[in-house]
């Protein structure tokens, strides 16, 4: 008959907490049974008692291991280890305690301001940016639609810029953005003191194509102006049309003393004017556009 159980496994990085003049090491362990727990400093076993107090809090197969050192001094600095061992295996976690006059304080991650979206004029990238506070420097995980994303060379990069010892700007930079790059982004920040999330929605809608319209003529006008005949044609079109005047099958081109052409736009209407200085029979003229 096989006995069921779980080999020891430390699930998170050890935490160091300060309470007055005391320091507490805290580790999270999964094991069944919990087995034997031993603490050491630089290879020397630590017995619970005096200034050192080891404790275990268990809930099923989850266990929280702590070692409290009271009245810490510079001699307590160094490399510590905790080992968990049962019939199914063994696991260890290491903790480095750096001491000057006191343990370094920690600050849980926090996004104090609302994330911003801007366009970098120099690189033409879309930039999702937010301010982050935390000490020590938080570890970051990036998500799009709740799926972990990573950097893509030439497409998506993550930039973290320190502003002070516990403040940073965090950016997701997207090159040549397309509608597929849109969606709900999330930045998870985590350190030994806690974690926090910043969410931002990027809307990248595909531009609707403007429909093309073929040239459509309004009724043309023919009038006399002294010795000249003036023909005016008006039409709407998208994109802008070009005009070609024909007499019979021959193209009519501007010629000093004979033909004058003028084009302009009147609102959404394109206007083309042909001024004939020597009056022909206007019925011989036809208009073609392309």
TrEMBL record:
Highest taxon of source: Eukaryota
GO biological process: homophilic cell adhesion via plasma membrane adhesion molecules
Domain called Ig-like: residue spans: 8-98, 109-203, 215-290
InterPro entries, sorted: Cell_Adh-Cytoskel_Orgn (IPR050958), Ig-like_dom (IPR007110), Ig-like_dom_sf (IPR036179), Ig-like_fold (IPR013783), Ig_I-set (IPR013098), Ig_sub (IPR003599), Ig_sub2 (IPR003598)
Key words, A-Z: Disulfide bond, Immunoglobulin domain, Signal
Gene3D superfamilies associated with the record: Immunoglobulins
A Pfam family recorded for this sequence: I-set
Record's GO cellular component terms: plasma membrane
Signal found in the keyword field: yes
Transmembrane segments: none
Protein name as catalogued: Twitchin
Source species: Schistocephalus solidus
Source taxonomy: Eukaryota, Metazoa, Spiralia, Lophotrochozoa, Platyhelminthes
Recorded name of the encoding gene: UNC22
């Amino acid at each position: 008959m096989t006995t069921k159980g779980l080999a020891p496994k430390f699930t998170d990085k050890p935490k160091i907490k300060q309470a007055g003049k005391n320091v507490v090491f805290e580790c999270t362990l999964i094991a069944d049974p919990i087995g034997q727990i031993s603490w050491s400093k630089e290879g020397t076993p630590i017995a619970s008692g005096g200034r050192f107090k080891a404790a275990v809090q268990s809930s099923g197969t989850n266990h929280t291991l702590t070692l409290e050192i009271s009245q810490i001094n510079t001699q307590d600095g160094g490399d510590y280890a905790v080992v968990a061992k049962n019939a199914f295996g063994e696991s260890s976690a290491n903790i480095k305690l750096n001491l000057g006059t006191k343990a370094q304080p920690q600050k849980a991650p926090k996004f104090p301001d609302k994330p911003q979206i801007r366009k970098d004029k120099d690189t033409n990238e879309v930039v999702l940016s937010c301010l982050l506070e935390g000490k020590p420097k938080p570890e970051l995980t990036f998500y799009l639609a709740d799926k972990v994303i990573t950097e893509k060379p030439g497409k998506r990069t993550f930039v973290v810029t320190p502003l002070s010892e516990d403040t940073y700007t965090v950016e997701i930079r997207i090159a040549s953005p397309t509608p597929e790059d849109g969606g709900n982004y999330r930045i998870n920040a985590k350190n030994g003191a806690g974690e926090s999330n910043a969410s931002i929605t990027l809307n990248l809608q595909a531009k609707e194509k403007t429909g093309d319209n073929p040239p459509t003529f309004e009724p043309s006008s023919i009038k006399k102006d002294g010795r000249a005949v003036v023909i005016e044609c008006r039409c709407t079109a998208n994109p802008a049309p070009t005009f070609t005047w024909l007499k019979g099958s021959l193209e009519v081109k501007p010629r000093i003393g004979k033909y004058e052409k003028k084009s302009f736009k009147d609102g959404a209407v394109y206007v083309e004017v042909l001024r004939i200085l020597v009056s022909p029979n206007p019925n011989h003229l036809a208009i073609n556009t392309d």
